[in-house]
Amino acid sequence: MLGKLLKYEFQATGRLTLIFYAALVFMSAVLKFGMIIVPDHIKRHTMFMIPSAGIVTIYIILFVAAFVVTWLLIIQRFYKNLIQNEGYLMHTLPVKTWQLITSKTITASIWAIASIIVAIISLEILFGSFMDIPELFLEIIQSINFDMSVLTTAGYSILTVFIIISFIVANILILYASMAIGQTVNKHKILGSFAAYIVIRCVLQIIGLTFIVMLGEMSLDFTLFATNPTAAVYLTLVFILLMELVTCAAFFAITEYFMRKKLNLE
Length: 266
Fold this sequence. Notes:
Mean pLDDT: 80
């Protein structure tokens, strides 16, 4: 049944997101094509600068919209399907609450990741140098005499990818948990969701700062950070990944509990 829910979600969300992603890539290709074929003396002409400025503006709007539309759709799909009137139908389906949340989370995560990939492709088409950013990052790290062995291994890349994915999923689940908590407030569900989100973010900021301070204190006494910076960085990345996974699990559980035990569709 989870597969059917996923199919339904992708069909419902794909029409809009794919249009924006395709439009962004197409517009970046148009801009790049214009940059290549138009002679420099024409580019400086006023009659060319006016329409080119319009195209650049459209590109920027599409670039921003690709992210904004994706995240608005993530919020809208959860709120409309599970909390508003459609919730009466969705919650009568022969599926578990966790399956509904899982289908939303998987779909939302894939679209959020896709928006980042499309943005990278767009920048690469337009500038052709976006992929040099990792090399620039490595040069910066080298300039502070850091042990580079950790940054050239597959383990580092894999950990980084998992951290990014878990970070995206965690942020989606935080939104879901906020809406699940906010829907318990009669007649003010949106306001309640917003308030819940602010409180959750404040709590997470406090916890995050506490762990940063603790990690800083540990680094002063933990000889591993001085004798083996490679292992220290791996340890830090693993710690960050574990924290993100714990965050995902915690807010998934919160969302599932409020949607199953405290559901308020009035």
